[in-house]
Automatic annotation (TrEMBL):
Record bears the keyword Glycosyltransferase: yes
SUPFAM superfamilies: UDP-Glycosyltransferase/glycogen phosphorylase
Name the record gives this protein: D-inositol 3-phosphate glycosyltransferase
InterPro entries with a match to the protein in the record: Glyco_trans_1, Glyco_trans_4-like_N, Glycosyltransferase_grp1
MF annotations from Gene Ontology: glycosyltransferase activity
Listed Gene3D superfamilies: Glycogen Phosphorylase B (3.40.50.2000)
Domain Glycosyltransferase subfamily 4-like N-terminal, residue spans: 9-107
Domain Glycosyl transferase family: 122-269
Length: 307
């Protein structure tokens, strides 16, 4: 399984002098890195393989889960990007060694002006996601007509893989709901995504499960009201235990619509009073903060290997 990739990683690392090796994800990169037995290695888990498999049951995810299981059996030095993910690895993978939580970093604000909807236009709901079953975009699409009944000029903009105007989800939705106010933007580069955040009124993420959820932090950093799942893995933790967003049942179109209408009509209720999203994101998830945590992790890993 992914033997060529694993061998390629190991071969590349064999020609590099390093005090410590750090592999992200627990699949072929991790297994390739763990072949370099002469150097201490850190592995970062970015997902819970069997949880992902439960949401997207197919042969590819099964193979990936088996790869992660092989990694787990080697008892690597492991970090996870959220407390939720660390707990999933203990519960699903029976990992009993310590797991340090080191989240993914978020860069500083993109510094685009926060414009929201143009004068006289309706609110703009933004979702940066993909079309997979786990991301649950269909619930948001089904919620949107309820919102349009309250805000006839509302617009829903969907950004990400599988969400382009020629993709299957767009073809199906526009065939069944022409002139619906939904814009299938599709995959875009960083600058274009920054512009999408800047023009939005509210951000919605209906994912059923997240190991962390960087798009949530990007939305908070840009000052957007956020609606997301109350039981969607690490979403609650990522949103500062709910202080940075409205948490709702993202399996229910009505609940999603109600939360979005609340966020649009009274955006100040989308976060705890006095909450400074940009500052909090920088203090907990800023690139310099996370880099320092990793450097300390490397030092401890090297020292433990030398002991």
């Amino acid at each position: 399984m992914f033997a060529v990739e694993r061998a390629g990683v190991a071969r590349a690392l064999s020609g590099i002098r390093a005090d410590v090796v750090h592999a992200h994800w627990t699949y072929e990169f991790a297994l390739g890195a763990l072949k370099t037995r002469d150097r201490p290695t850190v592995i970062t888990a970015h997902d819970a393989p069997f949880t992902v498999l439960s949401h997207m049951p197919d042969a590819y995810r099964l193979v990936r889960a088996l790869l992660a299981l092989r990694t787990r059996l080697k008892r690597p030095t492991l970090t996870a990007v959220s407390p939720y993910l660390a707990e999933r690895w203990r519960r699903e993978m029976f990992y009993r060694d310590p797991i340090d939580v080191i989240p993914n970093p978020v860069s500083a604000s993109m510094h685009h002006s926060q414009g929201g909807a143009a004068s006289g236009a309706g609110p703009i709901i933004l979702s940066v996601t993909d079309s997979s079953r786990r991301k649950n975009v269909m619930t948001l699409l089904r919620a949107f007509p309820i919102i349009r009944a309250r805000y006839p000029n509302a617009e829903l903009r969907l950004v990400g893989n599988g969400l382009g105007p020629d993709d299957e989800m767009a073809r199906t939705w526009t065939r069944d709901s022409p002139a619906s106010g939904v814009v299938f933007v599709g995959r875009r580069g960083r600058d274009d995504v920054a512009s999408e955040y800047a023009r939005a009124t509210v951000f919605c993420h209906t994912s059923l499960e997240e190991s962390q959820g960087l798009v949530l932090l990007e939305a908070v950093r840009e000052g957007l009201p956020v609606v997301a799942g109350r039981d969607s893995g690490a979403v609650r933790w990522t949103l500062f235990d709910g202080a940075a967003g409205i948490l709702t049942d993202v399996r229910s179109p009505q609940a999603v619509a109600d939360a979005l209408i609340l966020a649009i009509s009274t955006p100040e209720r989308a976060s705890t009073e006095g909450f400074d999203g940009a500052r909090m994101v920088e203090e907990r998830f800023g690139t310099d903060v996370i880099a320092d945590i990793y450097l300390e992790k490397y030092r401890r890993t090297i020292a433990a290997a030398a002991a």
